[in-house]
Amino acid sequence: MIRYILWRIAVMIPTLFMISVLVFTIIELPPGDYFESYIEEMRAIGEKADMQQIDELRARYGFNESEPVRYFHWITGFVQGDFGYSFEYRLPVSEVVGDRLWLTILVSVVTIIMTWLIAFPIGIYSATHQYSWGDYGLTFLGLIGIAVPNFILALVLMYFANIWFGTSIGHLMDQQFLGQPMSWAKAKSILEHLWIPVVIIGTAGTAGMVRRVRANLLDELNKQYVMTARAKGLHPFKVLIKYPLRLSLNFFISDIGSVLPTIISGAEITAVVLSLETTGPMLIRALQNQDMYLAGSFLMFLAVLTVIGVLVSDIALAFLDPRIRLQGGRTK
Amino acid sequence: MAECADLLYVDKINVSFPMPGGRIEAVKSFSMRVRPGKVTALVGESGSGKSVLGRSIMGIESPVANVSGQVFFHDPEMAKTVDLLALPHDGRQIRHIRGSRIGMIFQEPMTSFSPVHTVGNQIEEVLTVHAVLSPKEKRARVEEMLGLVGFDNPSRVFDMYPFELSGGMRQRAMIAMALICKPALLIADEPTTALDVTIQAQILKLLMELQEKLGMAILLITHDLGVVASLADDVVVIYRGEVMESGPVEAIFQNPQHAYTKGLMAAVPHFEMDRGERLKPLREIKVDTAGLIERCSTKQAKGDVLLSVRNVSKSFQVKRSNGFFSKATAATLAVNDVSFDIMRGETLGLVGESGCGKTTLSKILMRGVTANHGAVTFNDGDGSIDVLNAQGQALQALRTKIQMVFQDPVSSLSPRMTVRGIVGEPLEIHGRGNRASRLDVVRRLIHSIGLPESAMGRYPHSFSGGQRQRIGIARALALGPDLVICDEPVSALDVSVQAQILNLMKDLKSELGLTYLFISHNLAVINYMADRVAVMYAGRIVEIAPCETIMRNPVHPYTKKLLAAVPMPNLDHPLDFDLIGQPSKAAKKLWARQFHDDGTPDNLTHVDLGGGHLVLARRNVDARELRA
Amino acid sequence: MSSPAANHYVSTAPFDPYAAEQGGAAEGSSFNQASQLKLTWWRFKRHKPALYAGVLLLLAYLMIVIVEFLAPYNVHTRDVDRIYAPPQSLHLFHDGSFVGPFVYGRIMTLDMDTLRRVYTDDKNKVEKLRFFCSGDRYRFWGLVDANFHLVCPAEGGSLFVLGTDRLGRDVLSRILYGARISLTIGLLGVMTSFVLGIVIGGLAGYWGGWFDMIVQRIIEVLHSIPSIPLWLAMAAIMPADWSPLVVYLGITFILGLLDWTGLARAVRSKLLALREEDYVLAAQMMGAGSSRIIGRHLIPGFMSHLIASATLTIPGMILGETTLSFLGLGLRPPITSWGVLLTEARSVNVIALYPWLLFPVVPVIVIILAFNFLGDGLRDAADPYK
Amino acid sequence: AQDVAREPLSLKEAVAAGKLPPMAERLPKVPRVIPLNTPNLAPGRYGGDVRMLIGGQRDIRYMPIISYSRLIGYDLHFNFQPDLLERFEVVEERIFTFHLREGHRWSDGSPFTTEDFRYTWEDMFHDKELYIGGIPTVFRVNDKEPVFEVLDALTVRYTWEDPNPDFLAELASPVATRLMMPASYLKTYHRKYQKPDKLAKLIEKKGVQDWVALHQKMSRTVRPENPDLPTLDAWMNTTKPPAGQFIFARNPYYHRVDENGLQLPYLDRMVLGVGSGDLVAAKTGTGESDLQFTNLDFTDYTFLKNAEKRFPIKVNLWKRTQGSRIALMPNLNCKDPVWNALLRDVRVRRAMSLGINREEINKAVFFGLAQPSANTVLPESPLFKPEYRDAYAIYDVDQANALLQEAGMVREGAHGIRTLPDGRPATLIIETTGDSGFDSDVLELITDEWYKIGIRVFVHVAHRELFRRRITGGETVMSVWMGLDNGVPTADMSPRELAPTSDEQLQWPLWGLHTLSGGGDGRRADLKEAKALLDLFYEWRRSDTLEERTAIWHQMLSLYTSQVFTIGIVNGGLQPIVRAKKLRNLPDKGLYGFDPTAYLGIYMPDTFWYDEDA
Ligand SMILES: Nc1ncnc2c1ncn2[C@@H]1O[C@H](COP(=O)(O)OP(=O)(O)OP(=O)(O)O)[C@@H](O)[C@H]1O
Ligand SMILES: Nc1ncnc2c1ncn2[C@@H]1O[C@H](COP(=O)(O)OP(=O)(O)OP(=O)(O)O)[C@@H](O)[C@H]1O
Ligand SMILES: [Mg+2]
Ligand SMILES: [Mg+2]
Q1: Phi and psi for B426 in degrees, rounded to 5?
Q2: CB distance B106–A247 less than 8 Å?
Q3: What's the number of domains chain C is made of?
Q4: Ligand 1 neighbour B468 (Cβ under 6 A)
Q5: Quick one: pLDDT at residue C140?
Q6: Hey, is the C-beta of B91 within 8 angstroms of any chain A C-beta?
Q7: Pick the residue with more confidence: C319 or D509?
């Protein structure tokens, strides 16, 4: 296993290299560059742009160089821990992210944990009580969560949270705490706001998870080993948890690799709608403005997480099911 | 109503399963009793409802089944009679009884374990539920039990995963699980089908001991009338869910009354049979063997070498449950330098101790497992094929010529295919015939293995153990292969159906020139089927000889012990458990010196005793010395 | 038979060793001949909610063929005098007497203070609905001019059962027309992604080894490229003279091409475990090829998950463009789809003032529920243990 | 003590502690006195924060705009007025002499003198590294730089050879070119004044590449991102980005006072909350903003008005100053030869304009409150004439059809799509950025209307960058944008928007570029009327009397509207402005726009105050 892991880590390097080329290409793909978007931004409110100055800026940041050269500068910097410079914020990328990272992790982790905490019991319940009223009811609720687009849910929740509880609209905290150091009042305000994004981001994911848990569990429930376990006199719940549930987790484990990057990237669109102080909206803006080092470094960071996540999930798979041979071909 | 003397009283139980277009009445108004401390044997045809009954008593039959009736269990410890079926479903009371007061050995040991938990973990769990013990104590108890059921190295087995064990080993693990809490009643559903006779004897001895020591009653479901004769106090004969005959074992064996019982008795193969004699199944199914399977005529004369195996070895690395950083454990040498030939048109019987590598060997021949080294050549007259390295066309051709009946009928049938699909699949793969003709072949195959046509639309899980085994046989025969490797093909069949199947196989062999590699623990069956017999022990072939020679003049001590351990369906010849029931490790110590390798495998070689009789012994020993 | 075991008991019932096994269908009945597919269909039919869901979906798909006829208005019909009109309720009785389905006439006044259009029912004006009538002109499937409708407002009257939007268009008609795109286009992406996911994931899981290694790396690469920059990049390179429909089609398709990774990994992981089963070995030994083993033996064992995933992707397919439209890439007027309708409802104004514009979520929910029940039914029909 | 009592509460402590000089010393000798005793205004009291919402961090750029402290600014009637300057003199539109206020200080207390002008002129504009391409183009007249002189510590002079009538307007514009930067602060970052090792340390600390980047970063005024950069505005930024909330605190050295001698601004702080632009309306509707004008749209009015009942806010409607709220821009430089020829034909442009039912659009999209109009000046402008407004801005399908037929876009019968001279059907792709919510609505309505005159319209949405690029590249035949930026010009303001002078003019980007680049780039205008406009524009630049200028303006307006170079739809659209109910001095009616009102700039937010009694 150790050799396998080392081997996988070695393979990561070419993979990440390919990803970096792709990421670079994709953010270069839209015509124009940051400065062009910058000019347009100015024009949109009526300002005139000083073309001359902008040409100078362009030259300063190497935008008159060829793309491979720029790629080279960026990636060598990245490897050395220099993630580049955000034009939009006029700050080194590492400083831009700042606080947002922690808030993003907070929102994502709470959401993910809530999703699991809710989805698994419900999934198990609806698998074991298939076609009961509970199953139908929860399925129905969950599907509503899926069917209503997040942004509408976000607007509705925000609106009514404001009307009923007086929670201020959007954001992760009341406006006065923005940019303030942490305090009890701020923490309280964050908690007050947190539930809205958690509910919104969580609903679709929860319902999806419920359905998947249910489906996978239903497949395992009739296996012979369940009967064996029952014959031991185990509590049905324990039987469920130890045997069929574990075997039905395959799909879940295979996907935990993608959880890692989502913790950082967050649900971008919802975050935009709710105007959360998370990294998602920042990424989107950076992409739209072609603030390319910010966007590129961010994406590369996500890529590294993805690659690590996939490795973690593969290792977890091998633990989950000892029959799985990660290396061998189809026959032993 | 229930008499207090009965440990278990089953009163008019009915079990039925809904099916498209009707329902299956698996058990019909069935009544029986089990006396405390006694062994009640339940015998009957394959598919007659024995396993369903066992499961229904435990209350673990699948939820789709309709169960009605009453099952009274009088627990001597609680001195109270309860109706098991009336207890709340999966409630506390019934859970307390399960595993602790009533233990169950499932018929399909191969699939009854969860594949992702270690054997030890799964056995230990019973203790966790029913006893208050420290983890250390639990492990010790489990290891002790594993040792009792015949494992050489219990602590190693404890940490192994079920799929790393051989069929027989899993069955023993299952037995250990059922016995670990020392229940008052043991429902043993075919507990020894996957065990060779020596281990079987060991297990039976263990059961007897427990029965005596703890007053444990056993509801023994078995096909092996020999085991019944050696063990049972009472016998219940079941046929299609109904009691045909019941009574004390003496009464049944010496004076069978019912036509069905008589038929069963008559169908048992025995050693005194003539080589040409046919078994007499209860119902003879006329099968037109020629039309049954499509097959090209034999191109090669009988007696040529069809398959030659040279120096094949295979070792396994065991996965460790305790983290991946631990050191790799020593590899198991499952097959060790095995060489033999199979002639065209013959049946080579392969017998050996449980876990000695028979299944592994047969899978190597099928390219299901890659051998570490060695060579296998297949030659049906169209030129020889290097089995272990064949690719593409050659491999595909090989796949039509060699077929296998798996030891585990459950897991080798796709759970999501209907029988029709399963049996017809080889035909479909190799493009034999059209839809209609394939359907026709399938129908005839199903008929010839004694299943009704309605079976075609059902899924494997809804069959009894024996029925599934027959489906596997039908599938293997569908293509009309040259060589069929049968891994315990009839272990789950009652004697009558077994007779029917064996006859069928024999007919096919004589009429179409099929060749069989026949792996079995049942020496009577081997005697009936095989032309030559190879005996395996711990990965090596220890003796190989024509069938009569082995049966009459065994040389190797293991072979001798094997023959001595065969239970006879005859009350006059009960097994001497003290003699044969000793663990194989202990028995090995008693072997004569010339059979020991003294730690150096190279010391041993196959000594030719003439007449095709080879035996594994010291290089330089004299043949006469061996016979002594 | 008071004590069957103690003494020798012999059944006296007639004994026929040749009797066929009890239960199941009779010899030669159609059940025995039926292929697995047929059996599955029979079992499916017994699953009532699934059957109804299936029928509902069938109706929905039939409906989109004749929306022009079903919708009371043409999608493009707008009336600047009826902007943001709330839904009109249908009545049967007027002044205690039965008139048949009708709506009351409407009077609009402008509230110049709040700049709101205020609608009041004119209880004297009974506008009786007309059925199988001629109303708005339309071009059926863009080919034939016609004006035949299932239901029309009274002459000179209005019929806005679900209200109107900011240009005075009938929401109901728009929903009906929107179904056409919502129920079809996204399917393409979903199908592409499923086929790829199952095939590639299946092969990677079954073959393992090098192939798996490479596929996993490809998945990592694709997975590392979040969809948003990709959309942005794609939107930028799509030729400008493509119609929005074609662009959307293209984006959906490309997304499908990239979206298979999650599914592929799930399939692969499951197959890595399933391929160790004996029945796979058995199939290999029969000479079955990879595609057969994957398709016939392995994938069916993972069918529940696939069906669940598919039904879960359907909302994504119906509403996919809502996300895209956040980035300015979604479908646009004049093309109508449920996603477009919901995107148009994307403001607090709507929630606070014109909530009826949110109505399109209802058909989305209904369709998703229907797909879900259908999926459940299929799952159960394919489940041997049911 | 008396003085301290008059201090704003937020400064009292510092003044009492002696950290800050008292008000009298902070003010210039001659502060600018703002008279507030008009019927609608009132002198106020100190104190309070104003919360505002912005749609992104970059929108802190609104602050210097609405602060509107300029050397010279517009008053409410768009007359020039010295603001930071005490006074100024203009000779022949060539020689500009500026007199600073004595004792005027930057927000950090350093004196504001001609040194700041000199620094900017010599050490910034003329530094070969800072300004690689030389001084900003606004200073060049006929490619010649002015002569810059420092007359004394308070007087500077810029002298051109040729008249530069735009100069004052440039200085009064919402985002004016800065002639002066805080020299004493910026010298720290200038190579000429800073020791190299110290500079290197600073470069390192700020994470920039070299001193040029450092200087640029530290001296950004358009977006006041550097809290340390001294300013002359009413409020100065105190928050370092990135942040979710920016606090602008009062500038204690601000140069304006009310007539009671109270130093402005009244309001202590402007607090800008950063959020998604889409949420601004919702949040404003829940009383989370005390002053909101950005990110609100006319469509939000009803919602906001309803919110008045629940929250202490007041919603007003101001009139937007654009020449047309939304206008179609036929691209006279488009590549498609057939369309190019057609669009150059005035009959086609007129027909298209006549084919639009502006009343319907006004009713459907603007609640009937806007004014159907060509793209021209608003009645608020002294240059307004009804005939400009109505030029081809009536709805006349028959005339439109006739004109198109004449122009060679023929069709059989009275319905269906016309064919272009080369036989193609007359389908027209209109490009939009889809930024404003109603674009697509208006286009949908136009699509229907134009179908009646035989033109089939497809709408294509392009990203902003792409949008421009395609227009300049001639790939776009027609686009949608806003009309004239400044719909309320006076004759003193440059009529450049009416002539091809900039590549931003979507109807003739190449011609505009040609003028802009001094002939180096783009193409010379080759349409008679466009050339005429350009000539008139040059004439305006040379003219030096108001009458002359007025005449030229009218000629241009009449030519521009009758030629329908851009197809205006409606103007005078309304813009909701939300304020806290008790916020005084923000008029209920006003003109809203970037140019020339600088949004709220000319209404002087520094005079806003909270009337706690209201
Ligand atoms: N889940 C099920 N669904 C439908 N039919 C079933 C199911 N389980 C068992 N049966 C049927 O019930 C009958 C009895 O099965 P059972 O397993 O009890 O047989 P058995 O006596 O144990 O046979 P064997 O000796 O072959 O194991 C068989 O005909 C079988 O096909
Ligand atoms: N996948 C595996 N991993 C590790 N060890 C294995 C594996 N498969 C088999 N073995 C070991 O190889 C040995 C031979 O197993 P095999 O299944 O061939 O025995 P067998 O002769 O068929 O026994 P039985 O009669 O009990 O079926 C056993 O000790 C078993 O534990
Ligand atoms: Mg059985
Ligand atoms: Mg075996």
Answers
A1: -55, -35
A2: no
A3: 2
A4: no
A5: 86
A6: no
A7: D509
